[in-house]
């Protein structure tokens, strides 16, 4: 059973790194579940009219690390900048730059 079918009863927070090709569906489902979440997504997920409207409506906050995460041990760096897209975490600011 996957994220789209599962109806959890007791949990406090969703933390996930969803398939980027399904990011819009994951965001929509997370908002429907109405629980705080953190999703590691490409920074380009900020782009797009529909997503922009969704972020404004739900007051999404973004944590942007100072460097790219390396997902493959053998590589020296990633070609893709990712950030934590969060909701209902009540962070101090909507856009936070993190030194990592």
Structure description:
With 100 residues, this protein is α/β, with parallel strands linked by helices. 21% of the residues lie in helices and 24% in strands. It has two helices and five strands; from the N terminus they run E-H-E-H-E-E-E. It has helices at 23-33, 49-58, and strands at 14-16, 37-42, 61-65, 82-87, 95-98. Strands 1-2-4-3-5 form a five-stranded mixed β-sheet, covered by helices on one side. The radius of gyration is 14 Å and the shape is globular.
What keywords describe this structure?
100 residues; alpha/beta; five-stranded mixed β-sheet; 2 helices; 5 strands; 24% strand
Please state the average pLDDT score. Answer: 89
Sum up the overall morphology in one term. Answer: globular
Q: Uncertain runs with pLDDT below 50, 5 residues or more?
A: none
Helical segment count: 2
Strand order across the largest sheet: 1-2-4-3-5
Short structural summary:
21% of the residues lie in helices and 24% in strands. With 100 residues, it is α/β, with parallel strands linked by helices. Strands 1-2-4-3-5 form a five-stranded mixed beta sheet, with helices on one face.
List the SSEs and their pairings.
Blueprint: E1 14-16, H1 23-33, E2 37-42, H2 49-58, E3 61-65, E4 82-87, E5 95-98
Parallel strand pairs: 1-2, 3-5
Antiparallel strand pairs: 2-4, 3-4
């Amino acid at each position: 059973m996957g994220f789209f079918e599962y109806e959890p009863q007791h949990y406090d927070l969703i933390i996930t790194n969803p398939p980027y090709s399904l990011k819009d569906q994951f965001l929509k489902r997370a908002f429907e579940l109405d629980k705080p979440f953190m999703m590691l997504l490409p920074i380009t997920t900020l782009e797009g009219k529909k997503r922009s409207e969704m972020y404004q409506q739900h007051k999404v906050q973004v944590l942007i690390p100072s460097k790219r995460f390396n997902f493959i041990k053998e590589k020296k760096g990633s070609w893709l900048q990712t950030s934590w897209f969060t909701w209902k975490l009540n962070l101090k600011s909507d856009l936070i730059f993190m030194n990592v």
